[in-house]
Amino acid sequence: MKGRNHGNFTNPCLTMHQPWASLLVYGIKRIEGRSWPAPIRGRLWIHAASKVPDEATIKAMEEFYREIYAVDGVTDLKFPEHYPISRLIGCVDVVGCLRGEEVAAWDKIPEGVRLEAQTDFCWLCERPQRLIVPFEMRGYQRVYNLEKKIYDAAVRGLSAVESPFPVKFPLPDSRDPFSLKPGSLALHYPESKAMELDTSSSLSAAIAGARAAATQFSKKNQNTPSNQGISYSVGASQIANSSLEVVETTSSISDEISVSETSFLKGKEHMQPSLINQSSHDRQPFRTEQRPRPVVDSKIFAAAVRGLKPS
Q1: What is the pTM of this model?
Q2: Cα gap 105→204, rounded to integer Å
Q3: Domain spans, the chain
Q4: Which CATH superfamily does the domain covering 12-270 fall into?
Q5: Mean pLDDT for the chain?
Q6: Under 8 Å CB-to-CB from 48, ≥6 apart: which residues?
Q7: What Å distances lie between residue 107 and 15, 68, 189, 194, 239, CA to CA?
């Protein structure tokens, strides 16, 4: 997807909380919610943050998608068996970005997809792919570039995902990958109207549950002086972009996870030198909940063994 991205992104990646990250990579989640428009088009790598998702959150999000897929007649959803953390897990293609109200009124897409439009900005995602073997790595805030060595290894381990209900978001101008942007639908589809859908009690409950799951992150922000972090998604106006904007998402329910969810690591060696056009806040690494095991280089180890003398 080189050459399709505006800005200095070569292998853009986004860190998200679980379970939203895996739901996106498995093709179940089709809209990533944010409080800011997508800066790229094309492939976006997805990294799962270090926070272990609790069972209640997983259950709430799975029920949300179960209900909105049922609106389109899909009743046999297969969710991921595991929700790995601190791992690069796959990628999707970002084909457009619209305001939430635009997606909700767009009659060219299924009703269930329109129900995912719960945030200020909706990143429209297609062609999910997952890594057969997820890569352990540290994540960063907002969109950042993967290190080349990680990209080179990951791109060889991708496997296409069969989405339960594949969606194609039509571009207003097939020659312009950025033609599907805020305000574009009013020009090309002036007849689109806000969706009028009679929600069942179970659907309403599922939406409420998804919002509650997302707000677990935003509540942590209320007493913090700086909220420059992660977003979520699945909500009405902010269901939790945890993905529904997780970590910077789920769709954007809490558009930003507090800085308390991140921590500064001592030493320049912990900072990613390849981050481009990002502020110091954007470069804060996410907290790692498990300390990595020390690794000794094989050559050093061999030389040390040869130098041993009997005592």
Answers
A1: 0.71
A2: 19
A3: 12-270
A4: Hypothetical protein. (2.30.130.30)
A5: 76
A6: 15, 16, 17, 18, 21, 22, 83, 84, 85, 86, 87, 88, 89, 134, 139
A7: 31, 16, 9, 9, 22
